[in-house]
Amino acid sequence: MSYFDSFYVASWTIRIRTIRLKIEVHADSMASVFVNNQFVGQQPWGELEVNSQTLAETMYVDNSYLNLDSWNNSVRFDVTNFGAYTGLDYCVTVREYACT
User: Fold this and answer.
1) Are 2 and 82 in contact (CB under 8 A)?
2) Domain boundaries along the sequence of the chain
3) How far apart are CA 79 and CA 74, in angstroms?
């Protein structure tokens, strides 16, 4: 099962040198994470109780994965279930870092 989300990077300027995504994910039973169809990481397989009560799996993504100044950025979660129920909980944070 796949879940999609999209985002726009709007303020790319000469002063903005780095745009970084922080992706946090909990899933039952396992989730593979892709940014613009490029694999960035995977939350390991685990039982629902274990995966939902531990810290989220955190992945960081830099500019090389992004389509800057474009609506065409996407995050995809491929969730694999090994039991009766499937679940996904995620948070994506976009941060811009300016040169000083």
Assistant:
1) no
2) 2-98
3) 16
CB atoms inside a 10 Å sphere around CB 89: 13
Measured CA to CA, the distance from residue 100 to residue 47 in angstroms comes to 45
Q: Record the tokens describing residue 28, joined without a space.
A: 């039952």
This prediction has a pTM of 0.78
Which amino acid, residue 99? C
pLDDT category of residue 94 using cuts at 50, 70 and 90? confident
3 state SS for 9-72: CCCCCCCEEEEEEEEEEEEECEEEEEECCEEEEEECCCCHHHHHHCCCEEEEECHHHCCCCCCC
Amino acid symbol at 55: L
H/E segment holding residue 92: strand 87-98
Q: Which of 23, 4, 8, 17 is nearest to 93 (CA)?
A: 23
How far apart are the C-alpha atoms of 44 and 58, rounded to whole Å?
11
- Asked if residues 6 and 73 have their Cβ atoms less than 8 Å apart, the reply is yes
